[in-house]
Amino acid sequence: MITLVLGGARSGKSRYAESFVQQLVQSQQASNQPNFQCVYIATAQGLDAEMRQRIAHHQTARAEQTITWQTVEQPRNLAEAIEQHSSDDTVILVECLSLWLSNELLAELEPSHVIEQEFNEETLWQEPPCDMVPVWQPARSRLMQAIESHRGHLILVSNEVGQGVVPLGEINRRYVDEAGWLHQDIAAQADRVVLVTAGIPQILK
């Protein structure tokens, strides 16, 4: 069973996804079936202090749950991680698709495009050429194949970034486009699609 959970930043989507896993585990236990193996695939990279703090917050929250998580750090090669842990008695939670997409897209840029540099008024709005989209398509195709062939429960969490105005900058627009197309393709395969807003889940499918 495939579930796609979408929502904006601080929408409650992660909390909803984790509570959904808890429901699956409890239902399995109530029916006297063998316990699920719960795998948490984390795609975030602690590249700055604020992101490391966010990661630590999520780790602390998971440690306080009754679920015993096996955490897999997988900033890229997401398809391989899903395939490795796919089984009928496993629940996989991917947190999150949008960070994985960012990791894949930015990895294809030249290093000079993403290193820190000193900006001034003349360079603030300049962007490097954006040619990473065709290169990342194999990773996208592998992910879709892994989702299609997955066994067991797979919950995919992602940020819904396409409901605002068209962003400035070619890279930002490409990211929003790719995220939207990826969400559409996964939603077409998914058994359940949930949009979380202000902590309230809306079942779209």
TrEMBL record:
Keywords: ATP-binding, Cobalamin biosynthesis, GTP-binding, Kinase, Nucleotide-binding, Nucleotidyltransferase, Transferase. The keyword Hydrolase does not apply. The keyword Signal does not apply. One of its GO terms (molecular function) is adenosylcobinamide kinase activity. GTP binds at G7, G8, A9, R10, S11, G12, K13, S14, A42, T43, A44, E73, E95. SUPFAM superfamilies: P-loop containing nucleoside triphosphate hydrolases. Its EC number is 2.7.1.156, 2.7.7.62. Pfam families: CobU. NCBIfam families: PRK05800.1. This is Bifunctional adenosylcobalamin biosynthesis protein. The lineage of its organism: Bacteria, Pseudomonadati, Pseudomonadota, Gammaproteobacteria, Alteromonadales. The gene is cobU.
